[in-house]
Amino acid sequence: MGGSDRNHSLAEFAPAGAKKTESLFGRNSFLPENPAIAASVEAFARGAQRRCDPDRPGARRSGSGSKISNFHTHTIYCDGKDTPRELAEEALRLGCPALGFSGHSYTAYDPDCCMSPEGTAAYRREVLALREEYAGKLDIRLGLEQDYYSELPREEYDYLIGSVHAVKKNGEYVIVDWSRDMLLKGVEKLYGGDIYAFAEDYFRLVGDLWERTRCRIVGHFDLLTKFNEDGTLLDETHPRYLRAAGEALDRLLEAPVLFEINTGAMARGYRTMPYPGSVLRRAIARKGGTFILSSDCHRKEQLLYGLADQLNQPYERVEEAP
Ligand SMILES: [Zn+2]
Ligand SMILES: [Zn+2]
Questions:
Q1: Which of 1, 19, 50, 267 is the S-S candidate for 316 at Cβ 3.0 to 4.6 Å?
Q2: What is the distance in A from the centroid of ligand 1 to the CA of 150?
Q3: Sequence-distant contacts of 167-172: CB under 8 A, at least 24 apart
């Protein structure tokens, strides 16, 4: 894929602590000054490269022992079903080298699915304690799924996933992924039923994710297609849709971010394909984006849901779309 140029440049990654490098992915001049953060950027980028290289030894194996790690994991502190320890044990059982936790940041517009401010403090304590306890067995990372509208965290995290779950319009929020009905009602009320105007606003926020959050990973790039499995919500090849998505993509390609191949909606029965959809996935690959596999796990039985299969997909191939 076009991304191979960028991946090759990872070998030239500057030593931790360097202020400027040729680039992280080949054309960015960004490198965090904090050596610890720089090191985690490097580890992430290398990990993503390994996980997405279908030619690497063992890449085509599936099931336990597949050596895949997941960095998008929810727990009982937000809308997940399991404790951090239960998830860590499952990761060990599956032979994962690493496990990243990414609780939902607190959002005032939808307090039910996210961590409360007090819950966030407890989540941090528990994951940090596990990180020490499991050191040498499992590389645990403390992350956060940072919603676009959440306040930026004051505490340090190993990484952030930047995600747009709602679009604010005229002082009201349209929640993107709650239900098809709720989404359509919001679009009707605030956009006069123009789903592409909504998509343009959605992708404007997505394109701004790195600027706003300094996220390492862009979460579910086209979450607004969650209820579009049958194609009746919107046309994912519509020129307005592709233009909006393409502009977001172009902005994010200037930042040191990884794009998720996210199987979360497959695990929960909403979709048969991961985010992003095939047209946008090919566009990201063709333009040189780097992918990371994410299960967006909400229950431990689905910690690596569908990820091994994704390694068999020909992401490196350049196709003529969009
Ligand atoms: Zn999310
Ligand atoms: Zn999530």
A1: 1
A2: 13
A3: 167/198, 167/201, 167/202, 167/205, 168/109, 169/201
Sign (positive/negative) of CA torsion 82, 83, 87, 89?
negative
Residues 6+ apart with CB under 8 A from 40: 141, 158, 159, 216
- From the CA of 134, how far away is ligand 2's center (Å)? 23
State the distance from the centre of ligand 2 to the C-alpha of 149, rounded, in angstroms: 15
Chain centroid, CA 289 distance in Å = 13
Dihedral of alpha carbons 188, 176, 49, 66, sign? negative
Q: Please give the Cα distance from 73 to 99 (Å, whole number).
A: 8
pTM, to two decimals: 0.80
- Of the candidates 46, 1, 71, 76, the residue with the CA atom closest to the CA atom of residue 262: 71
Distance 42 CA to ligand 1 centre (A): 24
Q: What is residue 123's three-state secondary structure?
A: helix
The CA distance from 55 to 59, in Å, is 7
Residues linked to residue 73 through DSSP beta bridges, in sequence order: 297
Structural domains of the chain in order of their starting residue, each with its CATH number = 3-319 (3.20.20.140)
Q: What is the pLDDT of residues 269-292, one digit of tens each?
A: 999 999 999 899 989 988 888 888
Give 197's contacts (C-beta < 8 A, 6+ positions apart). 191
